[in-house]
Input
Amino acid sequence: MIKKCIFPVAGYGTRFLPATKSMPKEMLPVVNKPLVQYGVEEALDAGLDEICLVTGRGKRAINDFFDISYELEHQIAGTEKEQYLSSIRDIISRAKFATTRQSEMRGLGHAILTGELLVGSEPFGVILADDLCVCDEQGVMSQLVDIYNRERCAVIAIQEVDEANISKFGVIAGKEVEPGLFVVNDMVEKPAPEDAPSNLAIIGRYVLTPYIFEILRHTPPGKNGEVQLTDALLTMARTSKVLAYKFKGRRFDCGSVDGYVEATNYVYEHIYCAGRDA
Output
């Protein structure tokens, strides 16, 4: 069973400056919960209760968030405000947290490799917290774990994107073996529209095997001089098997201001208000 999930949370969040000058972008609230909480809840729903945080300088607020705040809890104990802590208390009781630090920002691939210390030789999930995914039934990570349990190989989440946005993503090509499930045979990081092998873009959800660490150790810097996870996954696809799945649900790019505002409006209208009125 997969029990561990890496959260790469060391990035600077420069698209949200000046707000992220002293606050991690993963702590930006979507209505009443920070982005990283949505991701951890998704991991827990998939059975991944060992949360591995790959952090960096200035990210202490994330660790503090997933800990007990004795002074705050004492102040609101017995009041109606105490109910607002129920969701984070549930997470703290269900999850185990471990942290390591990425000393320099060298790309997503380097962040995953930094997490090897916490993961070891087990298969594991990866969630990028600024990709907020909303699903009617199973969360995206649960969907990927189900496929992994059946196929026992790396599985990545994909979605169709239009040509105007294709250069923002890693893009795959492959053979469709089941509706929405592809065996990957090509993968390109942030291609120009004319160079994209398809319109199937990778989003921030992965189930990976420990073989990826060995590949990452020998993956040279790629796009933007960073160690790209996409490059390592292409090597894995050529030497073993990587599946890509068109997940069921909706994804919001909360790494951009437009996507963040769209996500906030959607969650407020369809989730927060619906729960409050239930």
